[in-house]
Design goal:
Layout: E1 2-7, H1 12-23, E2 27-34, E3 45-48, H2 52-59, E4 63-66, H3 74-83, E5 86-89, H4 92-109, E6 113-115, H5 118-127, E7 135-142, H6 160-163, H7 173-181, H8 183-196, E8 203-207, E9 213-219, E10 224-228, H9 234-242, H10 274-284, H11 288-304, H12 312-323, H13 332-354
Parallel strand pairs: 1-2, 1-4, 2-3, 4-5, 5-6, 7-8
Antiparallel strand pairs: 7-9, 9-10
This protein binds nicotinamide-adenine-dinucleotide (NAD) and magnesium ion.
Magnesium ion is lined by residues 117-119, 188.
């Protein structure tokens, strides 16, 4: 039996994870948490909001699936890594904001990180059993979102409803907007840097509209390995929860004979500046990615409320990055302070742009 604690149980990932757990008698849901929705009865131990590490302490999990959205997932990520408990990680924001601390806790705790983000699950699988010295570079694919191919000028009047209509993935609202701005791929770039410990100049992002190839690894001998599959998050969730078994899922096998379109192109960083902002923040390191993430969370929430225009998102992020000095965070409290300051500044900038 594997004891599973599920954080973010009412979300898009959380609901699919519950489906996977129900299909496998060897997985036992011992604890479940949500941000505000009632989840009584979902698991023997449940919690709505509050300090999620208290729930984790009580539930003694073998694996924690962190499917909370946003910076709010960071304490649980750090707790799980410090305890050496396996972390099935969907909450990319915690690694973006707290990558250095998470890496230190991971080394110290000695547990595993099983990525749930589809691209990172793919890279994890492609790298298994390989010498790190044989790896040349990673390639993360991006669907390009609903506005792929549009110029910057054509993005001016995008409404939240248009941004929420993602062509290939059905996800929560925040990550769907992040996919439309390409910030999602920027966050994933930083996530990949920490998970696979590669410098940014060896992680490439390419646009691949059909989301069939999730990631590629180029090796030093000229060979590249790719991970293919239909875009369905139940695959990486199941892989992480049943690792190393690779249990069966209800997903159809890949049908090549009926035709697959595998096209790749460079992202348009002029129309979608969030990707370059994230790359620069990752390269700057220290608390810069934490500021990027906080500003993005504020800007996306304001866009979803119908206040901030779509192109205001990269503007708020860039101006917040310029306004907050980078420091080195030595613990969670330091990051909480930086996150709070960045949110204050991003909120003020957002108000300026709205009025
Ligand atoms: P969602 O908005 O559908 O769900 C978020 C969940 O987090 C909800 O259960 C909510 O109650 C919970 N939550 C929010 N704030 C909380 C708090 N303070 N304390 C406890 N719980 C809180 O989001 P989602 O699409 O399921 O995404 C979750 C995470 O997984 C995000 O980090 C996202 O980037 C990542 N992810 C999602 C997908 C996807 O297909 N949805 C794919 C890859 C990665
Ligand atoms: Mg992803």
């Amino acid at each position: 039996m594997k004891r599973v604690a599920l954080l973010g149980a009412t979300g898009s990932i959380g609901k699919q994870a519950r489906e996977i757990v129900e299909a496998h008698p060897e997985l036992e849901l011992v604890a479940a948490a949500s941000g505000s929705q009632d989840i009584e009865g979902v698991a023997p131990l449940t919690q709505v909001g509050g300090d999620l590490t208290e729930l984790l302490e009580k539930s003694k999990p073998d694996v924690v699936l962190n499917a909370v959205v946003g910076f709010a997932g960071l304490p649980a990520t750090l707790w799980t890594l410090e305890q050496g408990v396996d972390l099935a990680l969907a909450n990319k924001e915690s690694l973006v904001a707290g990558g250095d601390l998470a890496l230190a806790a991971w080394k110290e705790g000695g547990g595993r990180i099983l990525p749930v983000d589809s691209e990172h699950s793919a890279v994890f699988q492609l790298l298994e059993g390989k010498e790190s010295t044989s790896v040349d570079s990673l390639v993360l694919t991006a669907s390009g979102g609903p506005f792929r191919g549009r110029s910057r000028a054509e993005l001016n009047s995008i409404s939240p409803l248009e941004a929420l209509a993602h062509p290939t993935w059905n996800m929560g609202p925040k990550i769907t907007v992040d996919s439309a701005t390409l910030m999602n791929k920027g966050l994933e770039l930083i996530e990949a840097h920490f998970l696979f410990e590669l410098p940014y100049d060896r992680i490439e992002v390419v646009v691949h509209q059909t989301s069939i190839v999730h990631a590629l690894v180029r090796f030093r001998d000229g060979a590249s390995l790719a991970h293919l599959g239909y875009p369905d998050m139940r695959v990486p969730i199941s892989y992480a929860l049943t690792y190393p078994e690779r249990a069966a899922t209800p997903i159809a096998p890949l049908d090549l004979a009926s035709g697959l379109i595998l096209e790749f192109s460079a992202p348009d960083e002029d129309a979608f500046p969030c990707l370059a902002l994230a790359r620069a923040a990752g390269e700057a390191g220290r608390t810069v990615p934490c500021v990027l993430n906080a500003a993005n969370e504020i800007a996306v929430a304001s866009f979803l409320d119908g206040r901030l225009p779509f192109l205001g998102i990269p503007e708020v992020v860039e101006r917040t990055l310029n306004a907050v000095d980078a420091v080195t965070a030595s613990d969670l409290d330091d990051l909480l302070a930086v996150d709070a300051e960045a949110r204050r500044i991003a909120s003020a900038l957002t108000r300026e742009l709205v009025h």
